From TrEMBL:
Residues forming coiled coils: none
Membrane-spanning ranges: none
A UniProt-annotated Pfam family: Esterase
GO molecular function annotation: acyltransferase activity, transferring groups other than amino-acyl groups
Protein name according to UniProt: Putative esterase
PANTHER family with a match to the protein in the record: DIACYLGLYCEROL ACYLTRANSFERASE_MYCOLYLTRANSFERASE AG85A, ENTEROCHELIN ESTERASE-RELATED
Superkingdom assignment: Bacteria
Amino acid sequence: MALAQTSFFSDVLGLSCSMNVILPQQTKRQIGLEGKAADGRFPVLYLLHGLSDDHSIWLRRTSIERYAAQYGLAVVMPAVARSFYTDMKVGHRYWTFVSEELPEIAGALFPLSDRREDTFAAGLSMGGYGAFKLGLACPDRFAAVASLSGGLDIRGRYDRAGVVALAEVESILGKREEAVGGPNDLFALAEQLSSLPKARQPLLYQCCGTEDFLYGENVAFREHARSLGLPLTYEEGPGEHEWGYWDAQIRRVLEWLPLQQL
């Protein structure tokens, strides 16, 4: 695998931004690792960080580079601050950046496939929300998306927030009455997705530890998705909101992705 630590300018954000990109490399002489790479443009996983993290965190806390090597899969890890992958009410348009501009920039800089069947997203916590949002809102561009311990119910952001936290939530999502049922509400997006033909619905993978403080809202989303007949794979087991759990689960996600075998 090759690692590119990239700085670039975003016209959408009006900012210089950062992303880390892992690229497949065909190798035979690396000790303990045999890299694989298909000819042509690479399938790509957009791997999203949580609320307190940045584009470097997956490389620092997991072995994602080693795990991805056997699949010939490129991994794009952008930084989006504490935006909750939204066009913020007070702040920057991070949803437009992640869903539209980032794939264009990454595809122009690196040999990434733009085919739906080669495009995936995954993330943890806030990033789990972001990954599911990409799949539910952009089903024609993502074949499969995965949420690890995702913060999936925006209503919970309002219910649990104190005065200071509520101010941040409202700066991101707006007032509760405009957020619930709107374009940032995964439950509403899931209902919209269910009206599409099955072939146009991306595969969904969801997992959460049973001791995680977000477990309740993960169960609620699971039941909602199942009631709508969405193609959801759900797994749970002992685990908290921590990197040991996510390091193990990202391996499960890579095994689950509908990748062509090299």
